[in-house]
Amino acid sequence: MGQSQGVGAAVKTSTDVLQFSLPTYSSVTGGLYAILEALNHIVNLQEFHFVLFTDSMSALQAFKALFPVNPLVLRIQEQFQQLRLQCK
Question: Whole-model pTM?
């Protein structure tokens, strides 16, 4: 997806491909949103082994905060906890 079209994200599993797009000004949000959508999808799958890839350094850096305030980071942390409880 080109810069003029916005920020693109995709989630691919063995059975599904989900695609999203956000405006160009939301690169951090786009990266976080893609991670959240991937985790939301993983929570509902019956499989137990996953690899999540991202090229969004800004999204990864958002996790470095000791006390994050970004609502997407908080939701991602909640989803990680849900996955841990499911042993995924």
Answer: 0.74
